[in-house]
Design goal:
The structure holds 2 protein chains of 2 kinds.
Chain A (H helix, E strand, L loop, with lengths): L6 E6 L4 E6 L5 E2 L7 H8 L3 E5 L4 E9 L3 E10 L2 E8 L6 H12 L15 H13 L8 H7 L14 H6 L15 H10 L4 E5 L6 H12 L3 E5 L7 H13 L7 H7 L7 H14 L5 E6 L7 H12 L5 E7 L7 H6 L3 E5 H4 L3 H11 L6 H11 L3 H11 L5 H4 L7 H14 L3 H10 L7 H8 L4 H10 L4 E3 L7 E3 L1 H14 L4 H14 L3 H10 L3 H17 L3 H10 L2 H5 L2 H13 L3 H14 L7 H21 L2 H12 L7 H11 L2 H5 L5 H10 L10 H20 L3 H17 L7 H13 L3 H14 L8 H17 L3 H17 L4 H17 L3 H11 L12 H17 L5 H18 L3 H17 L3 H15 L6 H4 L3 H12 L4 H10 L42 H11 L4 H8 L3 H15 L4 H10 L4
Chain B lengths: L1 E7 L15 E4 L5 E7 L2 H13 L4 E8 L2 H4 L1
The chains are: A alpha/beta, B alpha+beta.
């Protein structure tokens, strides 16, 4: 029930007016006349109100839609059911309209009585019940649908109001049980016993009554059961998993929230990951024993789905039982389960009807009165095959001469099938035959759909009559809205149709496609278009509905269809190229997507009308911007987004927002963080509205803009505010059901913790960020690079030299795998030079500086600032070796230019680092006074934000300078903290008392540095081979002995040993042995 | 392209030929059904086998012979 609204609009009959009252203010009447200007203005500011009109009561609620304004819905409870109606925009809320809706909802004969699955708060309830479905329905009230597939002014009603809701729900329940059934208690008992084990397999050919048996068991088992009736289209892992979670949520509405959120992201993770999350949820679920039934599993052929199910079976909580109905044994580890006694099997032998069951079936269900001999003959001839018995019974109905018919049963029962289907069909009146044949192309049937396909009316009555006549049609929902033919019977009908009227089939599919399109079930429309085959319409559907298809878990399915089209055809359809590219982006194939976008550009001139060419090119630019953004080519990406953003007015709101959030990254290209950029970012990031109606692109836009905001603050040197922004991001995510920790958050906050010298927290976060990269939440390559750089420096801070370099190698590998932009590789080699310099490999680093092509005369641009800073460090190091040489002056020149750029653009973060380096350069030049002046400035700027590693990472020369600063009383508390971070105590007394627990004690930087801790677990685990080598090493074998033992060369052994030393953070064999024992590696 | 022969138990009417992608239907001495004809590849073969499965026809044998030259074009 919606929460009682404090405002009430009431009809006062004695005065003939409406009065608006505020219940919280002692029913004070507000001076607002409904229908007036003030009324509509007032409405925009309130979330809801109650309406007590002349014709009934309503609770009226506003639902905000990002970008498209507010919509209003009316709720009315009747007979325990919550009814919901779409009211319109604010301007539609006239008293007359409210009365009209109130009357409609109050009337028992409301044309579309709607109900919720359970009586929950409608908004809450919608969020819950809708979740598994909104991925696929256009009608979830989602922004995607608002934005493109319907006029903005007329959003549809909620999902429960939609007749198609039943179609989707029907996947999550078994077909209705017929009233008369043969009791099969021995089999339902087997199923019941089976729930004590992990898996029950009901595996038999078509027509053995598998589905009916499962439905019978479900009706009497007394357990909560989640059902999923599979179809060929469910071979898309995203779709399959979304449905599985949807089914499970019918048992426990809290299950799978995280997994579902993952599936809705642009690049969903491997199915095993989703299953692992789901298993976790299931472990913690308070639901008692329950079962998941997957029927018609033979339709699943996608290997990832089999793998996901295998992983579920391997980690299945004891309270869960999986039941699979299938025509063929699935590729799951059945033998292993069988061996462990974890598998119950019901196969054709068990399922076939015995004589007694055949007798009951023919007599009770089919209404035939046969002699025991006739029953025995039929049972024997059909071998108890239920579909065969049913066909035989249908042939016999109304036939006086049973005994003369029976001898026709010769040969095997498959012959019976063939003969009888012919027989059954020819005995139907012509209109029924025609109906059966023409509708056989449909996988589901509704009255309206069949009317369209057959061109007749009264299809609903026909379906009901077929159902009554046992003609292999089953109702899929209690409202008898959707039916399906028994799969076997449908195959029989289709083969008849193909033989009798092959020319008609394309038309039938075309009509079905049109019906589905009218009802906004695009995937089904597309399927029939391809079956027709009607390539023109198929292409049009894909072009028009790409976003909707991609967001509803159909990307893989549509891509498969696209692959079936000739490549030349795709290439000459620029819009189709674009659609293809978009689908490739959503399935993580960025490089292929770029190629398709190029083709779209090249063929764009084919488009008519010509004025749409520009529109398409803007869309192409937008997606290119997105891809380049993810790959870390920030400059090109921002330029493309800016170009696209200004002319996207007519584009869906999320397309515009992607362009504008990428364009906002201009500040990372210019390095200018004064005011303008800040405001723009803040505006994008501030409201939490986006997450009220999440879908993939919105998540991307929202989180990316928060990350940008945090990076802006860091560039401005406002570390604490940046940390707060990251924390807000975590809160926003926590507030959204099932969201994941974003790797951008982990990296960002981890980098801050590193700066504050909280190395443990930093390492935890940065590693978490690395792991998060395997997940689905997209992060731009430059943020990934920055995270890796901090982690490398962290290893270096702990003197884990090898780990620091190995991590940078890992980054390069990742960058190659994901095709990061060259700029990110340059960045990585710059960081490597910095780390090597800290390790004292001056010669190597000088080599880098010479090869980099940087020079002291350059006018440095911000995107290359990191390179120039490292270049300056190299020159300073060279200058220390050779003070009279040109190196220190080179460094000063570069740093002076960098400083003026950083100061002009308010980049305090850069200013600080430059000041520190200039301090070191002056010190190396012997100019201690100048050095200390600059150091003082840096210390004063850095102190409020708690910088530590900024100074500490510069090593011994900085310690010396800080001691001087301390002696002179420059920021003594802060300097003391910094020195303690070096593991130093101040040497001389400062000019005023030093407080070890001074005002900064609450800051992270008061945490002391931890160098390699003996018991810290390994960052990178040892490989199998390395463990083998380590074992032999511990046994005291020499390299040569190890080489002989493992049949490898001594060189290879040495490589393994070095790698082991690196991973263990040790320098010798003895240390390695000790560390292996501490860590209990062996 | 190979010629395949798929033998299923029971007598299947000629009209199923279209359903089985144009494979010809004949009968052996035991009145079992023999589906015979060219299939482009393994995937096409499995497609036919799934149809056999979905009609609940017991499968007796599958064999492959090289297509003659005229079939390869």
């Amino acid at each position: 029930m919606p929460k009682a609204a404090p405002y009430r609009l009431t009809w006062i009959p004695e005065h003939g007016i409406y009065a608006l009252r505020d219940d919280q203010q002692h029913e004070q009447t507000l001076p607002v006349a409904p229908g007036s200007q003030e009324w509509f203005a007032w409405l925009t500011g309130i979330p809801s109100f109650t309406f007590s009109g002349q014709h009934g009561q309503l609770t009226v609620r506003q639902e905000a839609r990002r970008g498209t304004g507010a919509y209003w819905y009316a709720y009315h409870r009747r007979g325990g059911k919550m009814l919901k109606r779409y009211l319109g925009r604010t301007a539609d809320l006239t008293p007359a309209h409210l009365e009209e809706v109130a009357r409609e909802l109050a009337a028992p004969s409301a044309s579309h009585p709607t109900q919720e699955p359970t009586a929950r708060d409608p908004l809450q309830g919608t969020a819950q019940a809708e979740l598994p479905l909104r991925v696929f329905t256009s009608d979830s009230g989602g922004v995607d649908a608002d934005a493109e597939s319907r006029p903005a002014a007329a959003p549809r009603q909620s999902v429960q109001d939609d007749p198609l809701h039943h179609l989707l729900m029907s996947k999550l329940q078994m077909p209705r049980l017929r009233t008369r059934l043969v009791p099969r208690s021995h089999l339902t008992q087997r199923l019941q016993q089976g729930t004590e084990q992990a898996l029950t397999l009901v595996s038999a050919p078509a027509g053995f009554g598998k589905t009916t048996l499962l439905a019978q068991w479900i009706a009497e088992c007394g357990l909560p059961v989640a059902c999923l009736c599979l179809e060929p289209e469910d071979n898309d892992p995203v779709r399959f998993l979304s449905y599985v979670i949807g089914a499970l949520r019918m048992v426990d509405a809290h299950l799978g929230a995280t997994a579902l959120a993952l599936l809705r992201t642009p690049q969903p993770p491997p199915p095993e990951t989703v299953m692992a999350l789901l298993s976790n949820d299931l472990m913690r679920s308070s639901t008692g024993d329950f079962a998941l039934v997957l029927d018609d599993y033979h339709l699943i052929t996608a290997e990832p789905i089999h793998r996901a199910l295998t992983s579920l079976l391997e980690h299945m909580p004891p309270l869960m039982h999986l039941i699979i109905g299938t025509r063929a044994d699935p590729p799951l580890p059945l033998a292993r389960l069988r061996a462990r006694g974890q598998l119950t099997e019901l196969r054709a032998t068990e399922l076939r009807f015995g004589v007694a069951e055949a007798d009951a079936f023919l007599e009770e269900v089919m209404g035939l009165h046969l002699t025991p001999q006739d029953v025995a003959t039929l049972q024997a001839r059909t071998e108890g095959w239920i579909a065969g018995l049913q066909l035989a019974a249908l042939s016999l109905q109304g036939r006086p001469d049973v005994s003369s018919f029976l001898p026709a049963f010769t040969g095997s029962h498959r012959f019976v099938l063939d003969y009888l289907s012919e027989e059954v069909l020819s005995r139907q009146p012509i209109p029924v035959q025609t109906f059966l044949l023409q509708t056989s192309i449909l996988s589901r049937l509704s009255g309206s759909l069949c009317d369209t396909v057959t061109g007749l009316e009264q299809s609903q009555a026909m379906l009901e009559a077929l159902d009554r006549a046992n003609l292999f049609v089953a109702a899929l929902d209690d409202e008898r809205e959707w039916y399906r033919y028994h799969h076997l019977f449908a195959d029989l009908l289709r083969s008849h149709l193909q033989q009798s009227e092959p020319a008609l089939i394309p038309d039938l599919h075309r009509r079905a496609s049109a019906w589905y399109e009218r009802h906004d079930l695009i995937s089904e429309a597309l399927q029939h278009a391809f079956l027709a085959p009607d390539v023109v319409n198929a292409i049009r559907l894909i072009e028009q509905h790409t976003h909707a298809l991609a967001f509803r878990g159909q990307a893989h399915t549509v891509l498969n269809w696209l692959h079936a089209l000739p490549d030349g055809l795709v290439r000459t359809h620029p819009r189709l190229c674009f659609s293809h590219a978009l689908l490739l982006v959503f399935t993580g194939h960025l490089a292929e997507a770029l190629l398709r976008l190029q083709e779209a550009e090249q063929s764009a001139s084919h488009i008519s009308p010509a004025d749409e060419v520009q529109g398409l090119l803007k869309m192409v630019a937008n997606v290119q911007a997105y891809i380049l953004f993810l790959q870390g080519d920030l400059a090109s990406s921002v330029a493309l987004a800016e170009q696209a953003a200004d002319q996207l007015a007519e584009m869906p709101v999320h397309v515009r927002e992607v362009a504008s959030v990428i364009a906002a990254h201009r500040l990372l290209v210019s390095g200018d963080v004064r005011h303008g950029g800040g405001q723009r970012v803040a505006r994008l990031a501030s409201p939490h509205e986006a997450l009220s109606d999440v879908f993939a692109m919105e998540v991307f836009v929202h989180l990316t803009s928060i990350l940008l905001q945090a990076r802006l603050l860091r560039l401005q040197g406002r570390l604490r505010q940046a940390a707060t922004t990251y924390e807000q991001m975590a809160q926003v995510q926590a507030g959204h059901e099932g969201a994941l920790i974003h790797p951008g958050y982990c990296f960002g906050l981890g980098e801050l913790c590193y700066e504050w010298n909280d190395l443990d927290a930093a390492e935890r976060l940065l590693q978490q960020g690395r792991e998060g990269l395997r997940g689905p939440l997209t992060l731009a390559a430059d943020s990934i690079a920055a995270g890796y750089a901090s982690l490398a420096r962290l290893h270096q801070a702990r003197k884990q030299h090898h780990n620091a370099l190995a991590l940078l190698d890992a980054f390069v590998q990742l960058a190659n795998e994901r095709q990061f932009a060259p700029a990110q590789l340059t960045f990585a080699s710059t960081v490597r030079a910095h780390v090597e310099l800290m390790q004292g490999h001056l010669a190597a680093v000088v080599g880098w500086a010479e090869a980099s092509g940087l020079s002291a005369e350059d006018e440095p641009a911000y995107p290359r600032e990191r390179e120039y800073l490292t270049f300056a460090r190299v020159r300073i190091a060279q200058g220390r070796e050779d003070p009279p040489g040109p190196f220190l002056q080179d460094a000063q020149d570069v740093l002076a230019r960098l400083l003026s750029d950083a100061e002009a653009k308010a980049r305090i973060g850069s200013v600080l680092e430059i000041l520190v380096l200039r301090t070191l350069a002056f010190a190396a030049q012997g100019n201690r006074t100048q050095a200390l002046t600059l150091l003082e400035r840096a210390l004063l700027l850095a102190e409020p934000e708690g910088y530590v590693r900024l100074f500490v990472d510069e090593g011994e020369p900085m310690v010396a300078l800080l001691r001087h600063a301390y002696a002179r009383g420059i920021a003594p508390d802060y300097v003391a903290t910094l020195l303690s971070a070096f593991g130093e105590q101040p040497m001389a007394a400062p000019s005023r008392a030093w407080h070890p627990q001074g005002p900064h004690s609450t800051f992270h930087h008061s945490v002391p540095v931890h160098f390699a801790q003996p018991s810290a677990p390994l960052v990178e685990p040892l490989t199998e081979r390395e463990l083998e080598v380590l074992r032999l090493l511990v046994m005291g074998q020499s390299n040569a002995e190890i080489a002989r033992e493992l049949i490898i060369t001594v060189g290879t052994v040495k490589r393994h040993v070095n790698s082991i030393y690196g991973k263990l953070g040790v320098q010798s064999r003895t240390q390695a042995v000790a560390r292996a024992q501490t860590l209990q590696l062996l | 392209m190979y010629m395949y022969e798929i033998r299923v138990q029971g007598h299947l009417d000629q009209r199923w030929s279209a359903w089985f992608d144009g494979l010809t239907i004949s009968y052996d001495a035991d009145d079992n059904t023999v589906l015979h004809g060219p299939l482009v590849d393994e995937a096409a073969l499995h497609g036919v086998l799934i149809k056999v499965r979905d009609l609940a026809l017991p499968l007796l044998a599958v064999s492959r012979e090289k297509a003659d030259a005229s079939m390869q074009t």
